[in-house]
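Figure 2 data, in text form.
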Amino acid sequence: MEPSSATDHKIEPEFLGPLGDRPLAESAGKSSPDDLFPGASKFLSGRHQRKRRQQWNAVRPMVRRLLQPGEHVLHVVYAQQVPPLLHCVGLGHFVYAYHQVLLVVTDQRIIEALLNFRASGPGTRLRSYPYRHLSALKLSFGKLTAVPAQGRKQGWRLRTGGDKKLLNLLLPRLQKRLLAEGAAHAEALPLWHCPRCGAGTPPAPESCSACRTRFRSTRVATLLSLAFPGAGLLYLGYPFLALHDFLVESMIFFVWLALMSGASETDGIVPALLLGGLFFLITKIESIHLGRVLGARSIPEPEGRRETAGKLAVAGGVLSALLVVGAFPLAASVRPRLERDLDVSTDDGSWSGSRRPADWAFSKDDPSGRSQWTHARTGAHITVFAHPQSLLHDQEEFHHDYSAEMKQQVVSTLVDDGQIPAPFHGFRYVGVMKTKTDQEVVLMQYFLYDQDGHDIHQISLAVPREDADAGEALVVDFLHHARFIDAIAPQR
């Protein structure tokens, strides 16, 4: 068979010898001038051949710089590189789309040319696996695995059944070329090559010493990722992933602010600050990791781009700092914080209260409890609870949620209206429930809206069913003597 020229590099599956009793062109039964190679219709449909030719034509200028004059292309295979685990974590659902490759199988090596996201054009990474440095090359369950004598093994998933059949025919002939010079002369694989000139480069190169091409820096991408969400990926040339990263980080940041603004006074802001900070830190680390994964693909950098990126990193860092400095105090200022309490004062001493839960008859462990008051004549206990509301909360929505919650419990609603003694505003809820001894108990809950403090104060009293009228009179008398004062923390 005549050798192909260095500028041609036609696909010649039978260059190393026949792959069957008859030439492929004869065994295929039919042929066309548009076939990828003579007999290609035996392995690939017309649609697959057209797509493969498009991919081969796209990467051929880059691969041609690497091919030697006497090197012959046996087949070109569309495959997906089996990604490392951390790549799967970083890219998630898109991991396979960003690991599509075209394997150029020659008589001397396998050349791996990275494809773009749509697998319609070339990427930037170019690597090779010479047979003389491989100790094993096998195809099993649709996975082609190259095992170097030095270095980690690499696998590729083949997507087309015809490619698997053809490679199964080629592998026995390629096996004879493995470690031809012995394991002592084997180099570590894969070999990296410059996508511009084809010269050898170190793994994840910073530049090419042969053609002076400078590649985009993972360090700059890391700084940009720290400065502004998605900026590092945008610098590397992945606008879709940059937008995705920006949206995810922004969403987590706003959720973080929402957690802090919704933190109750009893829980404090520290748990929300730590939880949100942990998730935001994980997102930042993953963004940096993804930038380092994609930045190692020898992406050529236009002149002056790195200097511009450095300026953007500074500007993005200042903008992010201003956003954080302004957002966190704002979130802390709008979080629920009790500003006022209820207090009762009488001339005859009919009501006496305590703000020390240890003195209370019940509800000692309720963190929302503020005070408990005892009526001197009847000995009835009224407990006052407080529900701080943030500026984002609606007091009427609290009324709706509370009523819905009580309907789901073993409480029968008797009254649910807005009849609150002046000058207070709010709603009252009266319900009846049975104790373990089948005694009916009436729960009287009066909720007062503190319009100035935007908080809700709950007046709670429980009496037997037959004393409901007397209990309501006690609550009305209590409210007649009640007034708002500055918040006083219970002595817990």
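Caption note: The first helix runs from residue 24 to 27.
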